[in-house]
Amino acid sequence: MAWDFSTEPEFEEQLEWMRAFVREEIWPIEPVVADLDQAALDRIYAPLQEEVKRRGLWAAHLPPDLGGQGFGQVKLGLMHEILGSSPFAPNAFGNQAPDSGNSEVLALAGSDEQKERWLHPLLAGDLKSAFSMTEPESAGSDPTDLRTHAERDGEGWVLNGHKWFSSNASIADFLIVMAVTEPDARPHQRASMFIVPVDTPGVTIVRDVPTMEHPAESFGKLGNHAEILYEDVHLGPEALLGEAGAGFLIAQHRLGPGRIHHCMRWLGVSRRAFDMLCERATYRRAQGSVLGDKQTVQNWIADSAAQMQAARLMTLHAAWVMDTQGASAARKEISLIKFYGAGVLHDVVDRALQIHGALGYSTDMPLEAMYRYARAARFYDGPDEVHRQSVARQILRGYEPPPDEVPSEHVPTRREASRRKFADLLEAVTAND
Ligand SMILES: Cc1cc2nc3c(=O)[nH]c(=O)nc-3n(C[C@H](O)[C@H](O)[C@H](O)COP(=O)(O)OP(=O)(O)OC[C@H]3O[C@@H](n4cnc5c(N)ncnc54)[C@H](O)[C@@H]3O)c2cc1C
Fold first, then answer.
1. What pLDDT score does 433 carry?
2. What DSSP element (H or E) covers 326?
3. What's the average model confidence in pLDDT over 50-57?
4. Residue 304's closest CA among 356, 353, 354, 345?
């Protein structure tokens, strides 16, 4: 019987190295990042990326034949837990979203030519990419309603549409765009994916949308989210990724592992906030004792530890199901962790912020930024409500109405059945009375 929570010693050594590397080399980028432009950031990253490659940890989400490590989701999950502690760490490891998800899509659905032209330079860190699906005019939580469309034009296509929240699009070299190509097909077979170089005529990056996470107007920074117009964009046949109408199928493969990695990264953020919460509890005094002596604070610490442990085990379990039984088998587990993990992240960061009082609310601590980051987790890759709905639907498939709509656990009905089952015994007991 296999039921093992341990990590192989060789991989644990790699994780140990990653913990130290991220803390010593990546965390120091954070307080000065606002003063650096993209070129300066790239210069800081270059030697770090080299070091990661030397350690054999670069682009670990991809199979070895594509220059990755073929780790599988459990190992990747453990790795992302460490990288999640800083928003700047994944870029040093060649698995920065959305490049990581896009490279998986290209690996999965790309032709040899597409891999040569887009995937290999993406993996080498020579190109940047974005994933362009969400639209201001239609509900991202129901992408079967996409308005962006591409019509056949001889051998190629003409693309028209309006997207926003395409993360990193303003620094990207190419975009992977979801567009309706088969309007008369069944809802999940209507859309296709296209590889669109950003400098294609008709593509306009309108702006980077200021958000709760980055409220100041800025353009062309890692982590920004672009609004994009596609106006009569002429694409050759080589732009189509996979089969026409296979967009959702490909997206599903991209989103499953991506959600596991998000959830593990959130645990990295939660852990960092939790450490701040606990540290503050040891020295801040009020009403004659340190905060760690107050029961409310003790509850925060215990509840946070329990929630993080639960989210971690649930996420690693989802990763294990994916590794052992495939992406489809893990659908329920992935939806479970997506909304549960986002809630845990929010709760832990909120408590850490609260225990720091005004200091926590100020930009003198990273907590207010973590809080703003945490809020987005409840939207991207599917809002909480959609994942809850998906979990509930899958669970309800295992149930059916009871005969005559009498609940299976109805005590009087069960009592009747039990009396019939044990009639002999009950008769003997009555006779002995
Ligand atoms: C930080 C960030 C980064 C992002 N990056 C990208 C990216 O790189 N590429 C990209 O294409 N998109 C990206 N997105 C967009 C994201 O995927 C969408 O925001 C998400 O899919 C929700 O779509 P929507 O915003 O259109 O909300 P809507 O679909 O309009 O939903 C609004 C709200 O309606 C409610 N709702 C929806 N469905 C249900 C239901 N079934 N039951 C009950 N309530 C429901 C939910 O509360 C939901 O929050 C990003 C978003 C954020 C915040």
1. 66
2. none
3. 94
4. 345
Strand 174-180 versus strand 129-132 pairing type: parallel
Across the chain, mean pLDDT equals 94
DSSP assignment of 87-140: TTHHHHTT--TTHHHHHHHHHHH--HHHIIIIIHHHHTTS--EEEE---TTS-T
- Residue 176, SS3 per DSSP: strand
| Ligand 1, CB within 6 Å, residue ranges | 98, 131-134, 139-141, 165-167, 225, 376, 379-380, 382-383, 385-386, 389
pTM for the model: 0.92
Q: Centre a 10 Å sphere on the Cβ of residue 296 and count the other Cβ atoms it contains.
A: 11
Amino acid at the residue 199: D
pLDDT in tens, 197-251: 999 999 999 999 999 988 999 999 888 999 999 999 999 999 999 999 999 999 9
CA distances from 209 to 120, 197, 212, 376 (A): 30, 21, 10, 14
Helix (H, G, I), strand (E, B) or coil at 316: helix
Is residue 272 pLDDT above 80, yes or no?
A: yes
Atom 45 in ligand 1: residue holding the nearest Cα: 385
**Banded model confidence at residue 95, pLDDT cuts 50, 70, 90:** confident
d(CA 75, CA 71) in angstroms, rounded, equals 6
Residue 109: closest CA among 100, 119, 94, 97? 119
Task: Kindly report the protein residue whose alpha carbon is nearest to atom 7 of ligand 1.
Answer: 166
Among protein residues, the one with the nearest Cα to ligand 1's atom 12 is 134
Structure tokens at 277: 């919460």
Residue 56: other Cβ atoms inside 10 A: 10
Q: Tokens 């479970």 belong to which residue?
A: 336
Q: Rounded CA gap, 421 and 214, in Å? A: 68
